[in-house]
Amino acid sequence: MNRTCTQCDTRLVEDCEVHVKGAMYGLKIKKPGRFFSKASAEAKAAVCPKCGLVQLYVDQPNAFLKT
Q1: What is the dihedral of CA 50, 60, 42, 31, to 10 degrees?
Q2: d(CA 48, CA 13)
Q3: Does pTM surpass 0.90?
């Protein structure tokens, strides 16, 4: 997907990994509600090389449509 910066209209650099500083793991997005919900995805980032804006996204958002 071609993501564009909402602040300066520059094409974002996609597929960047997100890690918590000092930890070996990244971020995971999970659908709220059910304790054993299988709707989850690894967070990725898109970075604007011009202004530095960062956007988080998941590759498979359709997993969150299922109930």
Answers
A1: 120
A2: 6
A3: no
